[in-house]
Amino acid sequence: MSGWLLTMLCGLYDGFHLADIRDAVKNNKTSTSREVQTLDISLWRINSLETILTSTECNLHEFIDDIPQIFATDNLKTMSHKEETNGEKTHTLFDKFPMSSVNVSKDNMNEIVTLKSKCEELHTQIERLTKEKEEAFEEIERLKDQILSQSTYCTSLGAVLGNLTWRASRFPQIVDTWLSNFQSKIGEFLSIVNGTFGAFVDTYKSAFPPTSNVEYQFVMGLLGIVTNISASPEGREFLITNSSGTEFVQKLIKLMPELPLAPGTVSLKRLMLMILYNVSMNKTGLQYLLESRVEDTLSHCLDDEASSEEMQLLCLRVLQSVTYDLDKPKYIHNLITTIPIEKIEIMTSAKRSDISNAAKQVVKYLRHSQKITK
Ligand SMILES: *[C@@H]1O[C@H](CO)[C@@H](O)[C@H](O)[C@H]1NC(C)=O
Ligand SMILES: *[C@@H]1O[C@H](CO)[C@@H](O)[C@H](O)[C@H]1NC(C)=O
Ligand SMILES: *[C@@H]1O[C@H](CO)[C@@H](O)[C@H](O)[C@H]1NC(C)=O
Ligand SMILES: *[C@@H]1O[C@H](CO)[C@@H](O)[C@H](O)[C@H]1NC(C)=O
Ligand SMILES: *[C@@H]1O[C@H](CO)[C@@H](O)[C@H](O)[C@H]1NC(C)=O
Ligand SMILES: *[C@@H]1O[C@H](CO)[C@@H](O)[C@H](O)[C@H]1NC(C)=O
Ligand SMILES: *[C@@H]1O[C@H](CO)[C@@H](O)[C@H](O)[C@H]1NC(C)=O
Ligand SMILES: *[C@@H]1O[C@H](CO)[C@@H](O)[C@H](O)[C@H]1NC(C)=O
């Protein structure tokens, strides 16, 4: 913007050399009076321009003085700042420019006036938007805080109520009452369990929270209640009939191998395996487990070097229940190709009798199934 103005003014300065040329031409005896006259008109024009220039000289010097500073620096930030300052100077230059002595057409004048008011309009708009943006930003921060404290409140509430309800659900008559009188509430509850459990594992599978975490306690409470609901025949029947219930069972199977090694995951896995065991007690439930490839999860659990004896026993119990009286060739094939039979054979000589007995039964059931398919 300032570049073109400078070039234009420098061009005018060059015009003053015409005065010397005029003298030279006048002194040349061969020059015609017509040539001298043409030069005189040029000189008159130049003089009127000189008047304009004198009035702007002050501003111009200021303007030119700044230029080396603008280009002297490589710092882009400083430069853009200087350009801004420079823009102001150009503006001042225009303001002081004696418009009356310049041949500016009316159209141009109008255009400048329009642009100026437009510019002022935009400036006001920018100021307004900047203010609005700042206010919106403060509002976002405030709402973030509010959401955080509300979610902390909800989770604490859930953890406390979960703890109490889990204790209550230990009494079979309470679960019976729920199922016979408040079945729709159990449906709503399973819908919440299905959503919460998935979100919890997704959030924490890479960095599991400590057992003191309220979200962890909340999820533990939910799973504990489902475990006790599934302990009764009516409870597991409802669990595998309700769509939220079946989706939750599928999540148990799918997400268990994804849980990291952490103090809290052992208790969580124990509840998960108990639910799977209880569900396998129902024929429909057992078929659902086999359709969902429960053998992948059990194989992972048995192969896991970090698995405790208790965890191994729980896995063997589910496997025992799943392999009992298998008759569908598809399921037999899936189990035999997935379950580490050699490992279970080693377990048959474990010190703990409950482990060795469970392992012996699993081996027996698997061998029996193998015979059927041959
Ligand atoms: C005088 O003018 C003539 C024609 O305009 C030109 O050819 C000649 O070189 C000029 N002489 C001087 C000394 O400028
Ligand atoms: C001003 O400009 C117009 C056209 O742009 C031209 O016709 C007129 O002669 C100019 N006047 C002067 C004093 O130069
Ligand atoms: C309930 O909370 C207590 C104390 O926080 C804890 O020791 C216990 O394991 C919890 N029990 C259940 C069933 O959630
Ligand atoms: C309820 O679940 C707990 C484990 O969460 C278990 O120890 C208890 O035996 C269960 N009660 C019934 C009636 O199944
Ligand atoms: C199963 O749970 C859903 C909520 O996900 C509920 O709307 C539905 O009524 C329940 N089904 C039965 C049979 O209770
Ligand atoms: C179901 O799970 C509970 C633990 O919550 C357990 O006490 C019970 O023995 C399990 N099995 C059956 C068939 O109920
Ligand atoms: C298993 O659940 C189905 C419903 O899914 C039910 O019809 C059946 O009676 C249940 N069987 C047992 C043994 O509880
Ligand atoms: C179960 O939870 C998942 C999210 O983890 C959700 O997409 C799905 O709709 C839920 N299903 C039911 C029946 O509630």
Explain the overall architecture.
This protein is mainly α and 374 residues long. Helices cover 82% and strands 0% of the residues. Helix 3 runs antiparallel to helix 4 and helix 15 crosses helix 17. The N terminus is likely disordered. It binds 2-acetamido-2-deoxy-beta-D-glucopyranose (8 copies). One 2-acetamido-2-deoxy-beta-D-glucopyranose binds next to helix 8 and helix 11. This is Heat shock factor 2-binding protein. Keywords: Coiled coil, Signal, Stress response.
In brief:
The protein is mainly α and 374 residues long. It has helices at residues 2-14, 17-27, 33-72, 76-96, 106-168, 172-181, 183-204, 214-229, 233-239, 243-255, 263-280, 283-291, 294-303, 309-323, 329-338, 341-347, 353-373. α14 (309-323) runs parallel beside α17 (353-373).
> What Rg is obtained from the alpha carbons, in whole angstroms?
44 Å
Share in β-strands: under 5%
Order of helices and strands: HHHHHHHHHHHHHHHHH
Distance between the termini: 90 Å
Helix content: over 70%
Regions with little confidence, pLDDT below 50 for 5+ residues = 1-16, 74-86
Main pleated-sheet profile? none
Strand pairing plus helix content: what structural class?
mainly alpha
Bound molecules: 2-acetamido-2-deoxy-beta-D-glucopyranose
Annotation field: number of helices: 17
* Mean pLDDT over all positions: 82
Count of strand segments: 0
Shape: elongated
